[in-house]
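Quick one, probably user error.
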């Protein structure tokens, strides 16, 4: 850890993820989303290991959940997005992809929040738009956002980019972030690496960091 201009500047991901500096965001761990990721069972096990370590170390865990408005209340962008996702040619033919009360919108029971862990509903891709996530991080004086969940190439990448732009240190736990399209997932990681503004580690490394073992590079 370096000390410069009155602040601590971490040298490694392990230092970024130390308890007291980090929070874990579980991104879109929903039944209707996890159904499409590769190696769901392995992914769930790795996310669970991160959550168990975070809770044991007192690292805050928060959840983001994707929901959709009814078509009657969507705007132009939401209607265009729904048309693209649902392969519809007409805006008046779309339906709500993720109604808040639908079974496929629910968080999977395998990764359910522990008592008191908040779930922030969002309409877009970045979990920092339209949710209290930024306020929570700043109010607690946290500098690192550890990202797990799904889907890497759709919503986790823009959330990491947004977090960096807001002055946080985004750490993508790459084997605990589910992908649907492997090539698209590789492109997302390469693009994030190219910015030099985000960081990566494995589930085992972040578990070690939460435990104070210095396992993350």
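Nope, works fine. Designed sequence:
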């Amino acid at each position: 850890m370096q000390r410069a201009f009155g602040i601590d500047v971490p040298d490694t991901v392990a230092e970024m993820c130390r308890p007291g500096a980090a929070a874990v965001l579980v991104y879109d761990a929903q039944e209707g989303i996890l159904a499409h990721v590769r190696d769901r069972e392995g992914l769930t096990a790795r996310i669970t290991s991160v959550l168990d370590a975070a809770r044991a170390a007192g690292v805050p865990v928060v959840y983001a959940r994707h929901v959709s408005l009814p078509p009657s209340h969507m705007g132009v962008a939401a209607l265009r997005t729904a048309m693209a996702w649902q392969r519809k040619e007409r805006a008046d033919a779309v339906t709500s992809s993720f109604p808040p009360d639908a079974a496929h919108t629910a968080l999977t029971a395998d990764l359910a929040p522990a008592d008191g862990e908040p779930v922030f509903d969002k309409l877009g891709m970045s979990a920092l738009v339209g949710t209290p996530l930024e306020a929570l991080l700043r109010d607690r004086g946290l500098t690192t956002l550890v990202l797990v969940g799904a889907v890497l190439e759709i919503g986790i990448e823009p959330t990491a980019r947004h977090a960096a732009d807001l002055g946080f240190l985004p750490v993508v736990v790459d084997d605990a972030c589910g992908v649907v399209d492997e090539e698209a997932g590789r492109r997302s990681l390469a693009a994030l690496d190219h910015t030099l503004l985000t960081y990566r580690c494995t589930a085992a490394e972040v578990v070690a960091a939460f435990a104070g073992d210095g396992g993350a590079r």
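Strands lie at 2-4, 7-9, 22-27, 61-66, 119-122, 144-150, 169-178, 199-201.
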